[in-house]
Design a protein that fits this description.
The chain is built from eight helices and no strands. The protein has 167 residues and is mainly alpha-helical.
Length: 167
């Protein structure tokens, strides 16, 4: 997340506010006596840039606020409140997959999910059976298919067996 809005965005924002409110905008940010006007303007813009940093990725919210300004010049909290009311960005949705689904495949997938959900330790039993198969025929598996030490440990622990128990 950005820590502040870019200077160009804040300058355009202030120009738009000045164009909308004229001298009323300038009076709101009037420079205190004894302070440099340039330094004062830089400080105010820096504060707005920092406080509106959350809109760096959603400049549309700032645009919304500029299109929905109140009659009186808004201060920073009021302007930020208008930004918050901006409608959410429209995110394009993916199209639904085309074609027909195979009813038998769908039924098989549902049955598989339902079957596993009945036994919360089905995963441990499946790992145990996999380790047994690998012990019976070790040459039939590639290095990537072999079980890790962690997998061997976890199924034994889940089934309440000692770690040195044979599969």
């Amino acid at each position: 997340m950005h820590t502040s809005l870019p200077d160009a965005v804040v300058s355009r924002l202030f120009a738009a506010l000045r164009a909308n409110y004229g001298s009323a905008f300038d009076r709101l940010w009037e420079c205190p006596a004894g302070e440099s006007p340039e330094k004062h303007a830089v400080g105010i813009k820096a504060l707005w840039a920092k406080e509106l940093a959350g809109y760096s990725e959603n400049l549309g919210a700032i645009g919304y606020a500029l299109e929905n300004l109140p009659e009186q010049v808004p201060n920073l909290p009021q302007f930020r409140a208008i930004c918050r009311r901006a409608p959410a960005k429209v995110v394009p949705r993916l199209e639904a997959p085309k074609g027909t689904s195979d009813p038998e495949a769908v039924a098989a997938a549902i049955a598989a999910v339902q079957g596993n959900s009945l036994d919360p330790k089905a995963w441990a039993i499946a790992l145990r059976d996999r380790e047994r198969a690998q012990r019976r025929n070790p040459g039939a598996y590639t290095r990537n298919e072999l079980m890790t030490q962690a997998q061997r440990h976890m199924w034994r622990q889940a089934l309440g067996l000692a770690l040195n128990t044979e599969a």
